[in-house]
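Section 5.1 Outputs to date
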Amino acid sequence: TGAQAERDRLASDLHAEVLPAIASRAEELERRGDSASAEVLRDLAHEVRDLVSARRLPILEDEGLVAAAEWLAESLESRASVRIEIELTGDAGVRPPLAIERAAYRVLQLALDNVIRHAAASKAIVAISGTARGLTLAVSDDGRGLDPGEAAKARGSGHLGLSDMRSEAEAVGATLVFGNPGAGTTVTFRWTA
């Protein structure tokens, strides 16, 4: 709950303070005739706006993890060269507690970010199986796989995606497993009431 409140506060601060400052600076540069720099700032503002939207996602709260995962997959596919498929099992009409869905969604964001940025994958599959008393989310890719030594080195150099995923899972009493079945990488989030 504390982590979610902090994320919400940060998203609100970005929206209320950082975006207007970027827009103001872009307008100033435009008036000075520096259209190229103004455009760079507008692109940055667009990225920050996307980031804020992804962190404060009403669709997650209103419609649940499945709808939010579908939205995220569509959004990422429009900007990256990775095809993302969503596979559902279980009762789509029954949802686990919102805190569990938030943690699973955050793991999903981080896992797909790793797929896009590091895996050299062409496809990712997001498998979601949930009930009111349990949720399993697995993100698998056909990329180059996760070398354990490389993962440890990334954590040590400040690349916190793997650690952040583990923290999200632990905060709600879920488990997180990283695996390499055959090729690629699979990240599995499991929660049971």
